[in-house]
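User:
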Amino acid sequence: MRNVAGLTLRGMTGAAVEVEAEITGGMPAFAVVGLPDTAVKEARERVRAALRTVNVLLRGRVSVNLAPADLPKEGAMLDLPIAVALAEKAGRVRTERPALYIGELALDGRLRGVRGAVPAAFFARENGMELFVPPENAAEVSIVEGVRAWSVPDLQSLVMHLRGEKSLETIEKREIECAEPAADPDFSEIKGQAAAKRALEIAAAGHHNILFIGSPGSGKTMLAKALRGILPPLSDDELMEVMMLRSTAGLPFVLSRERPFRAVHHTATTAAICGGGSWLRPGEISLASRGVLFLDEFPEFQRDVIEALRQPLEDGSITVSRVSGSVTYPAKVLVVAACNPCPCGYAGDPEQKCICSAASLERYRRKLSGPILDRIDLHIPVPRLTPEELVSLGESGGETSAEVRARVTAAREIQRARWKPFGFSYNSEIPEKFLRRNASMKPEVRDFILETLKRVKLSGRGLSRVLRVARTIADLEAAPRIEVRHVAEAAGYREGEATSWMNG
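Assistant: Predicted structure:
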């Protein structure tokens, strides 16, 4: 590895780019080779202007090679290593140790922040390299332990540092505070909806996907937003994964153990949800990983978008493949979907008449296929509040989010201890072979399951999901074995009035 190196991103990981520079006589020219994209090609003018600030005037033919030559290079993060390589070739500086340089150059030599600072920090640490980053990226790098990094305000400061004339500011490891997760709205602010709140607790405890079905104004969005407040804070490993994803996507740096919450409009495309584009960016399902993905007006999403959720909901990851390559992003997301019972929203409403035609209702129902509904563990009806409930605005809605979070955290700890030998964390992740072997059911439970299967139309996947939910309900009670009441409650979330509208 040469002493001057940059980085190009391939998903959440970085690939080293060795920067070679050559300055020869002849007609003035500036060529960058090595499969650069448009942003890298445009670096020529930014680098040329920035080098003037350190008294490096490029004359003659300038050639910059980005190796390996068959690896596509993208983004403005290669500006800084190109400038350092040319400054060294011109005799202005001398690099003595392998180092990774990232940053976009302004014409006056200042450095602007770039995406991918967290993957760069991990790459530098794993390869024993020093790291130089813009001040805007210093906070991101500070959360990675064991990396030797400096904050570079401008090219002049970097040149003086490399010449030993001035020391740059080092980036120290930053401790991450574990503040209480925000609860907005708090569970106590939600009036009524006892069944929906119970379902949210189960979903949070076992990481089960949930579907709310109800008329407009019944509180589906409020319930979805309240879910994040009962989830425990991100662990260290989960936090690093979230920070890697945000850095890769170029999102603003926010240091918090609060779990992600992404609300997606129904006009979103498949690429926006799943990821893609020229540089294979992560989609919303990945940006919500370890947190909540809220899909309001679920049947209004394009059919191909809904069907594209099948694999990530099952596997917890998503592979984005294009002609330029393929990358795999995590998708360990808790999906909360919400929809109306019909296009107008009032099918089955006791107070307002539905005006939908049979044809429009049928088209609406067909948007949600059986395989998608099969992957959602909890189907919950959300009725409109009664006038009495609506006017009780000053009264408490029951338990606070902190109280519910305590039970959720305890149930998750039980699951983590049980499934750790198998490499899983939540009941929702358990493959069927492990589930059947370790479900710990009483004999009478098996008889009840048989009766349920005769009564309810469940697929093999549907039965497995009922058992996973039952196991979560038992964990919330700290019960060692699944009992009949646990299975009965779990089955009720698949066979009740919430999904009756799907069958006409």
